[in-house]
Amino acid sequence: MSINLKVARFIAMFSFLIIFGLQENGIPTIALLMIYFYQFLHDLFSSMAFRIFWEGLSIIPVFFVLILFLISRNYKVLLGCFVVLLIYQVYVSGLMNNYHRINIAFLLPLALFLISSVYVITIVKKQKPYIKVS
User: Which domain does 61 fall in, by range?
Assistant: First the structure.
C-alpha cells in the first residue's frame, strides 16, 4: 500500500471524527460518540436508570466501519464504508434539522472527509489486484 493511500485514509478518518455538530452546542463527532457510549454504559449498569440510552450502541458499528475503511483494499467495501459514514454523519451532526446553522467548523472537516475518501476510493480502484502465481 502506498504512503499516499495511508495518509489519505488517516486524513479521512481524522476529519470524520472532528466534524462539529450543528446543534446549539455542537461538539466534534468523536466527543459525541464517547458521550453516547458513556451514557449507554451508565444507563445499562446503573440501578437508578429508568430507561437505556440506546444511541450509545451506535459507536460500535461506527468504529468497525472506520477500521474497515482503514484496512480494506476493495473499492466496493470502501465505497460502502464511505456511504455508511456519510449517512451517520448527517444523522449525528443534525444536518437535517439545523441546516441553517452550517458554519466553517462543519464545512471544512466535512469537505476534507469527502475529498480524501473519494481520493482513497479512486486510488484503490485504479490499483491492479496482485495475483500471486506459484
Answer: 3-126
